[in-house]
Amino acid sequence: MVSLPTYLLFAVTALALVVIPGPNHLYIAARGLAQGRSAGLASAFGVEAGTLVHIAAAALGLSYVISQSATLFALVKWAGVAYLVYLAYRAFTAPDGEAAQAPPPQPLRAVFLEGVLVNVLNPKVTLFFLALLPQFVDPSAGPPALQVVVFGLTLLVLGLISDVVYAVAAGALGGRLARGARALRYVSGVVYLGLGVAAAFAGRK
Concatenated DSSP letters for the chain? Predict the structure, then answer.
């Protein structure tokens, strides 16, 4: 099994990575600002549920296949780009409510599933798992797939803690800015569009 020094080194590395604001944090913050704390938390749990898919893919070797196949990588990449652009379009074109009220909230289940899709369709996460996890896998320490699962779940837990902090903070701020519903929608739209552009330029090495 994974040695304690190796595991601690991975945990420190993963912690350093998840505390830096990234695309997932921006997405969760946009959700929290637009719809409040509950939606921010639902999106956070959705994002990390999507991480489970990446863990399974990495353990089964699918991440390697996708990274080596230009066609498969392009399919995942552009599916993610299209979905993020759609979210931006929906945010920009949503009708304004009367008396500057916030737009009708989406069911939390829909917000959760949206978070799953945003993460699963992000090719950068696939490449991240491919680049980081193998550096800590020791073939002599047991089945590599099991080690990938252990490291992946550790990253998921640390990521979830970070995501929840962003969700709660954005939800509190969003409540104070409820009168600025139109501005919140545009902020969300810009974030979604920015994530789509970032995904479009995700490199393949």
Answer: ---HHHHHHHHHHHHHHHTS--HHHHHHHHHHHHH-HHHHHHHHHHHHHHHHHHHHHHHHTHHHHHHH-HHHHHHHHHHHHHHHHHHHHHHHHPPPPGGGPPPPPPPHHHHHHHHHHHHHT-HHHHHHHHHHGGGG--GGGS-HHHHHHHHHHHHHHHHHHHHHHHHHHHHHHHHHTGGGHHHHHHHHHHHHHHHHHHHHT----
What per-residue confidence (pLDDT) applies to 164?
94
The residues of the chain scoring below 50 in pLDDT are 97-103, 204-205
Residue with tokens 């196949």: 69
CB burial class (10 A; 0-12, 13-18, 19+) of residue 11? middle
pLDDT, residue 103, reads 43
Helices 123-132 + 181-200 axis angle, to 10 = 50
Question: What's the pLDDT at 110?
Answer: 92
Q: What is the pLDDT of residue 183?
A: 64
Name the nearest CA neighbour of 188 among 57, 54, 90, 68: 90
pLDDT attached to residue 43:
93
